[in-house]
Design goal:
This protein is an alpha+beta fold. 67% of the residues lie in helices and 13% in strands.
């Protein structure tokens, strides 16, 4: 009974880690939506609005990136504890994380950006709002959007950021 309780708690901790990074992502999406709606209804904003928005988004991105890393680091241990220390499963899980990292430029970029934020940089360097008309006649609509960028030139200033990874990316990374 004690072992079963331990394993259930480990499964619960695993789910909590997933919930943390997923919830952090949802908070970013909500903030982006709030900024877009504010821009739509309130029109042009002063510099202070952009600065405050960028600071908030930086905080949210750092939370998200840290939550993802916590998930990656701690899930193998929780899975191992749930499965009676089955080393084969743990090895496969770690290999899966590694394979996905190697195959995904997005995954790699996210990890490099997390390292950048952990060692003195910010994740969000620029925010732009767009407003354009879409469609014609009665079906014409205004489309509002926001773009959030990390700038290659800023990332390149970080001596710990892997420069070879930046050679293939545009100046603005979304």
């Amino acid at each position: 009974m004690k072992k079963s309780k331990f394993q259930l708690l480990e499964a619960f901790y695993f789910e909590e880690k997933y919930d943390i990074f997923l919830s952090n992502y949802l908070v970013i999406e909500k903030e982006v939506l709030i900024n877009t709606i504010d821009r739509y209804f309130l029109g042009s904003k002063p510099y202070k609005f952009f600065h405050e928005s960028r600071l908030i988004l930086n905080r949210l991105f750092i939370n998200f990136l840290s939550g993802v890393r916590m998930y990656q680091d701690q899930v193998p241990s929780h899975v191992e504890n749930c499965l009676d220390n089955d080393r084969h499963v743990i090895k496969n899980l770690k290999n899966l994380f590694s394979k996905e990292f190697d195959l995904s430029i997005e995954y790699q970029s996210m990890e490099f950006l997390r390292n950048h934020t952990q060692h003195g940089g910010q994740a969000v360097h620029s925010i732009t709002f767009q407003n354009k008309n879409v469609g014609n006649g009665d079906s014409a609509k205004n489309q509002f959007s926001i773009s959030i960028w990390a700038l290659k030139s800023v990332l390149m200033e970080n001596p710990k950021f892997p420069k070879n990874r930046l050679s293939s990316v545009d100046e603005k990374v979304d």
